[in-house]
Every structure is written in structure tokens, then in C-alpha cells.
Automatic annotation (TrEMBL):
A single cellular component GO annotation: membrane
Protein localization: Membrane
Superkingdom field: Eukaryota
Signal peptide feature range: 1-21
Topology term for the membrane: Multi-pass membrane protein
Alphabetical keyword list: Membrane, Signal, Transmembrane, Transmembrane helix
Gene that encodes it: Lhfpl6
Source species: Chaetorhynchus papuensis
This protein's name: LHPL6 protein
């Protein structure tokens, strides 16, 4: 099994994969914001939520639905900021995962990653990291 990466490149490939996996798991889990509402603990992320309030018209009151799930549609995400955050974070996670998997393949295949390709991949990874880290800006209501 020949490699086109240096020792630093192999370390970068494995760290890239771990960071991409952590970003993707964080994107899919609904635990970005934790709190309580109507004396129940609630949590939500960009497109998932747990224990959320709904209006019960038969009893004319707000009740808590104690389950986790995705929003019914893209438009059901509470605000435009959260919808933008969902798209941007998903794109960032996709870029990070693409570069990480390419780097891991470079550990097994010789001449897959040259110095120029490594620099371009690092730039793409930087952009992916910027996208996946930008979800915390300007999204609170």
C-alpha cells in the first residue's frame, strides 16, 4: 500500500476525517441549543428539535410534544436565518467530508495527492470549516 502523503499529510488526513465526522454528527443532532419551556427541557438544531410547544386547539392551550424529529418541511424551520444556516452548514459539512475522504484515499493510493492538490484541498477544507462554523452568527431570535 503506497502513499502519496508525508507523515504530516497522514496526520492531517486522519484529523480532517475526525473533524469532518464531528461536524456532520453535530449537524444532524438536535442539541445545539438547550433550555426549558413550560417546565420541560427542550433542544433544537438547524433542522431537528426535541420537546417543542404546539397549540392544542381542542383544549385552547399550548402543550409540549415530547419527541424528537425533523421539521415537516424546509419552510417549517422557524426563521429565514435558521434555513440559511441549515443550507450553509450542510454545504460546509459536505466540503469537509469530501476533502477528508480524499485525504484518506491519499494514504492508500500513491500519486493521488500532489503538493498543489494538497494546498487546494486545504483551501477547500478552510472554506468548509468557515461555512460549518458560521451557523452561530445572527441566527438567534
Amino acid at each position: 500500500m503506497a502513499s502519496s502523503l508525508t507523515c504530516a499529510g497522514v496526520v492531517w488526513a486522519f484529523l480532517s476525517f475526525l473533524c469532518a465526522a464531528a461536524s456532520c454528527v453535530g449537524f444532524f443532532m438536535p442539541y445545539w441549543l438547550l433550555g426549558s419551556q413550560l417546565e420541560k427541557s427542550v433542544s433544537f438544531g438547524t433542522f431537528r428539535r426535541c420537546s417543542y410547544p404546539v397549540r392544542d386547539e381542542s383544549r385552547q392551550m399550548t402543550v409540549m410534544v415530547e419527541q424528537c424529529g425533523r421539521y415537516a418541511s424546509f419552510q417549517a424551520i422557524p426563521s429565514a436565518e435558521w434555513r440559511i444556516c441549515t443550507v450553509v452548514t450542510g454545504l460546509g459539512c459536505g466540503l469537509l467530508l469530501l476533502v477528508a475522504l480524499t485525504a484518506l484515499m491519499g494514504c492508500c493510493v500513491s500519486e493521488l495527492i500532489s503538493r498543489t492538490v494538497g494546498r487546494v484541498a486545504g483551501g477547500i477544507q478552510f472554506l468548509g470549516g468557515k461555512y460549518s462554523c458560521s451557523e452561530g452568527t445572527g441566527v438567534s431570535r
